[in-house]
């Protein structure tokens, strides 16, 4: 059978064995509670107020949703439709993008980049490509659907603008100097589109493992089909899928820079038996050689730095070595407590 699940013509009645997780990792047959108290930030409000809200949302809750974000809703819809169309295209076309090579700057794969060595696969296909600087990357992108480059190009610009705006609020809230997150700390922009076909038995498998995002910051656009869960107060909880909002998830590098004030929440994706689910993630990532460390303003005289400085390259090799578990990788850079 084709590795890409979106090419399967018939999924069948039961879940293939190599998608069944061990009992302790399965979501089970629970009806998961819905997160009712996700902070909603209105970017149209007064800047000082927004800064306070973003800071307390990140520190006390872990992540937040944004309305009045200035990313045109029609562009969000167009982009979502382009990705749905792409995943519906013929197998041969999609196969030309298939790769598990990290060096490939535009790739389609299934489950994780470690597909060939996995015992159990995650129930997802994924499209990942670089987006910045646009003119250097766009030539590598799909050309079908024919509007792909135009629409996704416009979306990438808006998503970057949005994340830099959020980062500037965070910067001011943490007392960091203007431009702190611009440049090398946010140099790499990756688009990551998850696509899950309907699953015969959602209680036995996962669409994405539990994880914290390894990057600096993430924005997620959901479709109307739920699946994203956060681990909160000792249990997994569903995020309501509201298609015109953007979900901001601080990554582990923000946890380091803020000296632990930000937490980078744990989340995962479950599947469903009825509908296709597509989500659009945009990640800002530090360039390889830049040193990431607790900022002097966050780890002041009375706060010892919790982490030692490291380059993103060092972090990324620790990440691969720890089986792509970013939280384990980060432990490696923790200072010993006196
Ligand atoms: C991610 C992620 C969630 C989703 O890409 O890191 O957590 O809803 N995605 O697809
Ligand atoms: Ni994530």
Automatic annotation (TrEMBL):
Lineage start: Eukaryota, Viridiplantae, Streptophyta, Embryophyta, Tracheophyta
Keywords, ordered alphabetically: Iron, Metal-binding, Oxidoreductase
Gene3D superfamilies named among the record's database cross-references: B-lactam Antibiotic, Isopenicillin N Synthase, Chain
Listed InterPro entries: DIOX_N, IPNS-like_FE2OG_OXY, IPNS-like_sf, Oxoglu/Fe-dep_dioxygenase_dom, Plant_2OG-oxidoreductases
Taxonomic superkingdom: Eukaryota
Iron in keyword set: yes
Pfam families: 2OG-FeII_Oxy, DIOX_N
Secretion signal span: none
Domain called Fe2OG dioxygenase: residue spans: 187-286
Similarity comment: family membership: Belongs to the iron/ascorbate-dependent oxidoreductase family.
GO biological process annotation, one example: coumarin biosynthetic process
PANTHER family, per database record: OXOGLUTARATE/IRON-DEPENDENT DIOXYGENASE
Protein name as catalogued: Fe2OG dioxygenase domain-containing protein
GO molecular function: 2-oxoglutarate-dependent dioxygenase activity; metal ion binding
Origin species: Castilleja foliolosa
